[in-house]
Amino acid sequence: MSATVSSRVAAPAPPELAGTTPLLEVRDVSKSFGSVIALKDISMSVHAGEVMCLLGDNGAGKSTLIKILSGVHPASEGEYLVEGKPVRFGSPRDALDHGIATVYQDLAMIPLMSIARNFFLGSEPTRGVGPFRRFDLETADRTTRDEMAKMGILLRDTDQPVGTLSGGERQCVAIARAVYFGAKVLILDEPTAALGVKEAGVVLRYIAQARARGLGVIFITHNVHHAYPIGDRFTLLNRGRSYGTFAKDDVTREEVVTMMAGGEELEELGHELEEFARADGLAAGRLGEVGRELEAEARG
Protein backbone atom coordinates (compact mmCIF):
# COMPACT_ATOMS: atom_id res chain seq x y z
CA MET A 1 0.00 0.00 0.00
CA SER A 2 1.09 3.57 -0.43
CA ALA A 3 1.13 5.51 2.81
CA THR A 4 -0.11 9.06 2.76
CA VAL A 5 -0.24 11.64 5.51
CA SER A 6 -3.96 11.03 5.88
CA SER A 7 -3.40 7.33 6.58
CA ARG A 8 -4.15 6.19 10.10
CA VAL A 9 -3.76 2.46 10.12
CA ALA A 10 -2.50 -0.12 12.57
CA ALA A 11 -0.12 -2.55 10.94
CA PRO A 12 -0.37 -6.05 12.38
CA ALA A 13 2.60 -7.69 14.02
CA PRO A 14 5.02 -9.55 11.72
CA PRO A 15 3.71 -13.00 10.64
CA GLU A 16 6.07 -14.85 12.98
CA LEU A 17 4.64 -12.87 15.92
CA ALA A 18 0.98 -13.04 14.90
CA GLY A 19 -1.23 -14.45 17.62
CA THR A 20 1.22 -13.67 20.40
CA THR A 21 0.42 -11.27 23.22
CA PRO A 22 2.34 -8.01 23.00
CA LEU A 23 4.85 -7.38 25.76
CA LEU A 24 3.63 -3.81 25.92
CA GLU A 25 0.60 -2.13 24.40
CA VAL A 26 -1.14 1.23 24.70
CA ARG A 27 -4.62 1.86 23.32
CA ASP A 28 -6.01 5.33 22.60
CA VAL A 29 -3.70 6.95 25.15
CA SER A 30 -4.02 10.70 25.67
CA LYS A 31 -2.16 13.08 27.95
CA SER A 32 -3.12 16.63 28.90
CA PHE A 33 -1.29 19.18 31.00
CA GLY A 34 -4.04 21.57 32.02
CA SER A 35 -5.56 22.87 28.79
CA VAL A 36 -2.59 21.70 26.71
CA ILE A 37 -3.16 18.40 24.89
CA ALA A 38 0.27 16.77 24.53
CA LEU A 39 -0.96 13.41 23.16
CA LYS A 40 -4.27 12.37 21.67
CA ASP A 41 -5.47 8.81 20.98
CA ILE A 42 -2.09 7.12 20.54
CA SER A 43 -2.06 3.35 20.05
CA MET A 44 1.00 1.11 19.62
CA SER A 45 2.41 -2.22 20.74
CA VAL A 46 5.67 -4.14 20.78
CA HIS A 47 6.19 -7.91 20.81
CA ALA A 48 9.09 -10.03 21.98
CA GLY A 49 11.80 -10.13 19.33
CA GLU A 50 10.57 -6.97 17.59
CA VAL A 51 11.94 -3.46 17.10
CA MET A 52 9.16 -0.87 17.11
CA CYS A 53 10.39 2.53 15.95
CA LEU A 54 8.62 5.56 17.38
CA LEU A 55 9.27 8.38 14.95
CA GLY A 56 8.52 12.07 15.02
CA ASP A 57 10.11 15.46 14.65
CA ASN A 58 10.90 17.70 17.62
CA GLY A 59 7.68 18.52 19.46
CA ALA A 60 5.81 15.51 18.09
CA GLY A 61 5.10 14.07 21.56
CA LYS A 62 7.77 11.36 21.72
CA SER A 63 9.11 12.45 25.12
CA THR A 64 5.64 12.57 26.65
CA LEU A 65 4.85 9.07 25.41
CA ILE A 66 8.18 7.78 26.75
CA LYS A 67 7.34 9.18 30.18
CA ILE A 68 3.96 7.44 30.14
CA LEU A 69 5.52 4.12 29.12
CA SER A 70 8.28 4.39 31.73
CA GLY A 71 5.96 5.36 34.60
CA VAL A 72 6.95 9.02 35.00
CA HIS A 73 3.49 10.34 34.02
CA PRO A 74 0.16 8.51 34.15
CA ALA A 75 -1.97 8.74 31.03
CA SER A 76 -4.99 11.02 31.20
CA GLU A 77 -7.03 8.61 29.08
CA GLY A 78 -6.63 5.22 27.44
CA GLU A 79 -5.36 1.77 28.36
CA TYR A 80 -1.85 0.57 29.16
CA LEU A 81 -1.29 -3.20 29.05
CA VAL A 82 1.79 -5.25 29.92
CA GLU A 83 1.64 -8.83 28.61
CA GLY A 84 -2.10 -8.39 28.11
CA LYS A 85 -2.84 -7.16 31.65
CA PRO A 86 -3.96 -3.58 32.39
CA VAL A 87 -1.48 -1.63 34.50
CA ARG A 88 -1.21 1.85 35.96
CA PHE A 89 2.28 2.83 37.04
CA GLY A 90 2.85 5.26 39.88
CA SER A 91 6.60 5.58 39.36
CA PRO A 92 9.47 4.41 37.13
CA ARG A 93 10.20 1.73 39.73
CA ASP A 94 6.80 0.18 38.97
CA ALA A 95 7.73 0.01 35.29
CA LEU A 96 11.09 -1.59 36.11
CA ASP A 97 9.36 -4.17 38.28
CA HIS A 98 7.28 -5.11 35.22
CA GLY A 99 10.39 -5.50 33.06
CA ILE A 100 10.21 -2.15 31.25
CA ALA A 101 13.58 -0.38 31.21
CA THR A 102 14.24 3.02 29.68
CA VAL A 103 17.66 4.16 28.50
CA TYR A 104 17.62 7.95 28.28
CA GLN A 105 19.97 10.13 26.24
CA ASP A 106 22.07 11.04 29.29
CA LEU A 107 22.40 7.28 30.08
CA ALA A 108 22.25 7.93 33.89
CA MET A 109 25.98 7.31 34.28
CA ILE A 110 28.75 8.95 36.28
CA PRO A 111 31.72 9.51 33.92
CA LEU A 112 34.44 9.36 36.58
CA MET A 113 33.23 6.10 38.11
CA SER A 114 34.33 2.73 36.79
CA ILE A 115 32.41 0.70 34.23
CA ALA A 116 31.61 -1.98 36.81
CA ARG A 117 30.30 0.54 39.36
CA ASN A 118 28.16 2.24 36.72
CA PHE A 119 26.84 -1.14 35.61
CA PHE A 120 25.52 -1.82 39.13
CA LEU A 121 24.73 1.79 40.07
CA GLY A 122 21.93 1.67 42.64
CA SER A 123 21.89 -2.15 42.78
CA GLU A 124 25.41 -2.94 43.96
CA PRO A 125 26.34 -6.55 44.81
CA THR A 126 27.73 -6.82 48.32
CA ARG A 127 29.56 -9.31 50.52
CA GLY A 128 29.70 -9.51 54.28
CA VAL A 129 26.97 -8.61 56.76
CA GLY A 130 26.04 -5.68 58.93
CA PRO A 131 28.75 -3.05 59.33
CA PHE A 132 31.17 -5.30 57.43
CA ARG A 133 29.10 -5.32 54.27
CA ARG A 134 31.01 -3.94 51.28
CA PHE A 135 30.92 -3.71 47.52
CA ASP A 136 31.65 -7.09 45.91
CA LEU A 137 34.15 -5.95 43.31
CA GLU A 138 34.96 -9.46 42.09
CA THR A 139 31.31 -10.29 41.31
CA ALA A 140 30.75 -6.90 39.70
CA ASP A 141 33.86 -7.27 37.54
CA ARG A 142 32.98 -10.79 36.38
CA THR A 143 29.34 -10.00 35.67
CA THR A 144 30.14 -6.78 33.80
CA ARG A 145 32.68 -8.58 31.61
CA ASP A 146 30.27 -11.41 30.84
CA GLU A 147 27.32 -9.17 30.01
CA MET A 148 29.39 -6.83 27.85
CA ALA A 149 30.87 -9.83 26.03
CA LYS A 150 27.34 -10.97 25.17
CA MET A 151 26.87 -7.60 23.48
CA GLY A 152 30.10 -8.03 21.54
CA ILE A 153 32.43 -5.82 23.59
CA LEU A 154 35.53 -7.28 25.24
CA LEU A 155 36.62 -4.96 28.05
CA ARG A 156 40.28 -4.52 28.88
CA ASP A 157 39.58 -3.30 32.41
CA THR A 158 36.20 -2.86 34.09
CA ASP A 159 37.87 -0.50 36.57
CA GLN A 160 38.47 2.16 33.91
CA PRO A 161 36.23 5.25 34.09
CA VAL A 162 33.13 4.89 31.96
CA GLY A 163 33.87 8.35 30.56
CA THR A 164 36.83 6.88 28.66
CA LEU A 165 34.49 4.77 26.52
CA SER A 166 33.14 5.96 23.20
CA GLY A 167 29.54 7.11 22.93
CA GLY A 168 28.47 3.85 21.32
CA GLU A 169 30.20 1.77 24.01
CA ARG A 170 28.49 3.76 26.78
CA GLN A 171 25.16 3.05 25.09
CA CYS A 172 26.13 -0.63 25.11
CA VAL A 173 26.81 -0.50 28.86
CA ALA A 174 23.38 1.03 29.46
CA ILE A 175 21.64 -1.56 27.26
CA ALA A 176 23.54 -4.50 28.81
CA ARG A 177 22.73 -3.19 32.29
CA ALA A 178 19.01 -3.01 31.51
CA VAL A 179 19.00 -6.53 30.04
CA TYR A 180 20.91 -7.97 33.00
CA PHE A 181 18.42 -6.57 35.49
CA GLY A 182 15.51 -8.32 33.79
CA ALA A 183 14.24 -5.97 31.11
CA LYS A 184 11.70 -7.52 28.75
CA VAL A 185 11.01 -4.25 26.97
CA LEU A 186 13.85 -1.86 26.22
CA ILE A 187 12.90 1.76 25.53
CA LEU A 188 15.76 3.65 23.87
CA ASP A 189 15.45 7.43 23.85
CA GLU A 190 17.35 8.87 20.86
CA PRO A 191 20.34 6.53 21.37
CA THR A 192 22.08 7.67 18.16
CA ALA A 193 21.33 11.41 18.40
CA ALA A 194 24.80 12.58 19.48
CA LEU A 195 26.82 9.90 17.68
CA GLY A 196 28.77 9.88 14.44
CA VAL A 197 28.01 7.50 11.59
CA LYS A 198 30.32 4.73 12.80
CA GLU A 199 29.18 4.91 16.44
CA ALA A 200 25.52 4.97 15.38
CA GLY A 201 26.14 1.78 13.43
CA VAL A 202 27.58 0.17 16.56
CA VAL A 203 24.44 1.04 18.56
CA LEU A 204 22.15 -0.28 15.80
CA ARG A 205 24.05 -3.57 15.93
CA TYR A 206 23.43 -3.79 19.69
CA ILE A 207 19.72 -3.15 19.10
CA ALA A 208 19.67 -6.04 16.62
CA GLN A 209 21.36 -8.25 19.22
CA ALA A 210 18.76 -7.30 21.85
CA ARG A 211 16.00 -8.25 19.39
CA ALA A 212 17.71 -11.56 18.68
CA ARG A 213 17.72 -12.28 22.43
CA GLY A 214 13.93 -11.98 22.50
CA LEU A 215 13.52 -8.47 23.90
CA GLY A 216 10.93 -6.04 22.68
CA VAL A 217 12.68 -2.81 21.69
CA ILE A 218 11.06 0.61 21.32
CA PHE A 219 13.50 2.79 19.41
CA ILE A 220 12.63 6.49 19.69
CA THR A 221 14.28 8.74 17.14
CA HIS A 222 13.74 11.53 14.64
CA ASN A 223 16.35 10.08 12.27
CA VAL A 224 14.65 7.90 9.67
CA HIS A 225 17.99 6.78 8.23
CA HIS A 226 18.85 5.13 11.55
CA ALA A 227 15.39 3.70 12.20
CA TYR A 228 14.48 2.26 8.81
CA PRO A 229 17.25 -0.38 8.52
CA ILE A 230 16.62 -1.83 11.99
CA GLY A 231 12.87 -1.34 12.51
CA ASP A 232 10.16 -3.96 12.02
CA ARG A 233 7.25 -1.54 12.40
CA PHE A 234 6.99 2.24 12.63
CA THR A 235 4.61 4.40 14.64
CA LEU A 236 4.67 8.01 13.47
CA LEU A 237 3.77 11.00 15.62
CA ASN A 238 3.13 14.56 14.56
CA ARG A 239 2.07 17.26 17.02
CA GLY A 240 0.77 14.76 19.52
CA ARG A 241 -1.28 12.78 17.00
CA SER A 242 -0.52 9.47 15.35
CA TYR A 243 -0.41 8.85 11.63
CA GLY A 244 -0.67 5.15 12.44
CA THR A 245 1.62 2.14 12.62
CA PHE A 246 3.20 0.79 9.44
CA ALA A 247 5.08 -2.40 8.67
CA LYS A 248 8.34 -1.91 6.80
CA ASP A 249 6.91 -3.65 3.72
CA ASP A 250 4.04 -1.16 3.59
CA VAL A 251 5.94 2.12 3.65
CA THR A 252 9.04 3.53 1.99
CA ARG A 253 11.72 5.59 3.67
CA GLU A 254 10.62 8.66 1.71
CA GLU A 255 7.00 8.25 2.79
CA VAL A 256 8.10 8.02 6.42
CA VAL A 257 10.06 11.27 6.07
CA THR A 258 7.04 12.98 4.53
CA MET A 259 4.70 11.86 7.31
CA MET A 260 7.15 12.84 10.04
CA ALA A 261 7.47 16.35 8.67
CA GLY A 262 3.76 16.71 7.92
CA GLY A 263 3.05 16.26 4.24
CA GLU A 264 0.34 18.93 4.00
CA GLU A 265 2.61 21.46 5.69
CA LEU A 266 5.49 20.71 3.32
CA GLU A 267 3.18 21.00 0.32
CA GLU A 268 1.81 24.31 1.57
CA LEU A 269 5.35 25.57 2.19
CA GLY A 270 6.32 24.56 -1.33
CA HIS A 271 3.43 26.62 -2.76
CA GLU A 272 4.44 29.60 -0.60
CA LEU A 273 8.05 29.39 -1.77
CA GLU A 274 6.93 29.23 -5.39
CA GLU A 275 4.80 32.31 -4.82
CA PHE A 276 7.71 34.15 -3.18
CA ALA A 277 9.98 33.23 -6.09
CA ARG A 278 7.38 34.49 -8.57
CA ALA A 279 6.95 37.73 -6.60
CA ASP A 280 10.71 38.17 -6.36
CA GLY A 281 10.99 37.69 -10.10
CA LEU A 282 8.36 40.39 -10.76
CA ALA A 283 10.02 42.73 -8.27
CA ALA A 284 13.43 42.15 -9.84
CA GLY A 285 12.02 42.89 -13.28
CA ARG A 286 10.40 46.11 -12.04
CA LEU A 287 13.62 47.22 -10.35
CA GLY A 288 15.50 46.58 -13.58
CA GLU A 289 13.11 48.82 -15.49
CA VAL A 290 13.45 51.60 -12.90
CA GLY A 291 17.22 51.31 -13.04
CA ARG A 292 17.27 51.60 -16.81
CA GLU A 293 14.95 54.65 -16.67
CA LEU A 294 17.22 56.37 -14.13
CA GLU A 295 20.27 55.57 -16.20
CA ALA A 296 18.61 57.03 -19.32
CA GLU A 297 17.67 60.21 -17.43
CA ALA A 298 21.23 60.58 -16.15
CA ARG A 299 22.60 60.38 -19.68
CA GLY A 300 20.03 62.86 -20.97
Question: Explain this structure to me?
Answer:
- The protein has 300 residues and is of the alpha/beta class.
- It has 2 domains: 9-264, Rossmann fold (3-Layer(aba) Sandwich), CATH 3.40.50.300; 265-300.
- It is 39% helix and 23% strand.
- It has 9 helices and 13 strands.
- It has helices at residues 62-69, 92-97, 115-119, 137-150, 167-180, 197-212, 224-230, 253-261, 263-299, and strands spanning 9-10, 24-33, 36-46, 50-55, 77-82, 85-86, 100-103, 126-127, 134-135, 185-189, 216-221, 233-238, 241-247.
- A 7-stranded mixed sheet has the order 1-13-12-4-11-10-7, with helices on both faces. A 4-stranded antiparallel sheet has the order 3-2-5-6, with helices on one face.
- A hairpin with a 2-residue loop joins strand 2 and strand 3 (36-46).
- Helix 4 packs across helix 5 (167-180).
- The model is unreliable at 1-8 (pLDDT under 50).
- Keywords: ATP-binding, Nucleotide-binding.
- Residues 24-264 form the ABC transporter domain.
- This is Inositol transport system ATP-binding protein.
- It comes from uncultured Thermomicrobiales bacterium.
- One of its GO terms (molecular function) is ATP hydrolysis activity.
Which structural class do the helices and strands define?
alpha/beta
Assigned CATH superfamily of the largest domain: P-loop containing nucleotide triphosphate hydrolases
Count of domains: 2
What's the CATH class label of the largest domain? Alpha Beta
CATH topology of the largest domain: Rossmann fold
Layout of secondary structure:
Elements: E1 9-10, E2 24-33, E3 36-46, E4 50-55, H1 62-69, E5 77-82, E6 85-86, H2 92-97, E7 100-103, H3 115-119, E8 126-127, E9 134-135, H4 137-150, H5 167-180, E10 185-189, H6 197-212, E11 216-221, H7 224-230, E12 233-238, E13 241-247, H8 253-261, H9 263-299
Parallel strand pairs: 1-13, 4-11, 4-12, 7-10, 10-11
Antiparallel strand pairs: 2-3, 2-5, 5-6, 8-9, 12-13
Helix pairs in contact: 4-5, 5-6
